[in-house]
Design a protein that fits this description.
mainly alpha
């Protein structure tokens, strides 16, 4: 197994585990575990491949689906042993985000040859699985939180692209990209690292906006 395939399986497995843990928080049955694990594990990569116009990765290699299902089954029988399932979701998600940001960027670079599109593919691969998980489960989506999330995925992707184009090789570039993304996400989880947010006066209500318009008889 080469480094790229290894990263792909790491990302799928860890994201699947976060989906299964969320299913445990919602007290779903084992089929619900499998569904949410598979959706989370394959969601980002599926959208990436559809955008790139290449065969969807799990269609050509069903082992990815079996990996998600197996992860769901293991989680179903062991989730109750974890002291804080939500904390596990956050940290497994951080590892998966970093791994998938790197792999998605590499695949985007191989397919398109464009550094810009590679970074976009990395961000898409790393974040959409978690977004779909939260939407389906009715959780607050990761995109609506202030702490670094998309930024960490973008950083992992950028470092991979820069390292690869600098001739550092896939393994070294992947390691640097993963370390960068995970460091940023870890800082967000432990030290509340976040980018400055937009500050403005509250938006006008529809009634306030219409009040200033001249009436038409």
């Amino acid at each position: 197994m080469d480094a790229a395939t290894f990263l792909d399986f790491v990302g799928v497995t860890l994201f699947a585990a976060t989906g299964a843990l969320v299913a445990s928080r919602k007290q779903l049955d084992i089929i619900g575990f499998m569904f949410l694990a598979t959706l989370t594990g394959t969601g980002g990569g599926t959208v990436r491949d559809l955008v790139l116009g290449v065969p969807v990765f799990w269609v050509g290699q069903p082992l990815f689906i079996l990996t998600c299902a197996g992860t769901a089954v293991v989680t179903y029988f062991t989730a109750h042993l974890l002291e804080s399932r939500y904390r596990w979701v956050l940290w497994l998600d951080a590892i998966a985000l970093s791994a998938y940001g790197v792999f998605g960027a590499y695949k985007g670079l191989v397919v398109t040859g464009s550094p810009t599109l590679a970074v976009v593919m990395g961000m898409m691969t790393a974040t959409l699985g978690g977004v779909l998980r939260d939407i389906v489960a009715g959780e607050e989506t990761v995109l609506m939180r202030r702490d670094l999330y998309i930024s960490a995925a973008m950083a992992a992707s950028v470092v991979l692209v820069l390292g690869y184009w600098a001739g550092l090789g896939l393994i070294t570039s992947s390691a640097l990209g993963f370390a960068t993304g995970f460091a940023l996400r870890s800082g967000a989880l432990t030290r509340d690292w976040a980018l400055p947010t937009y500050r403005s006066t509250p938006g006008r209500t529809p009634e306030d906006s219409l009040a200033g318009r001249p009436r038409r008889d």
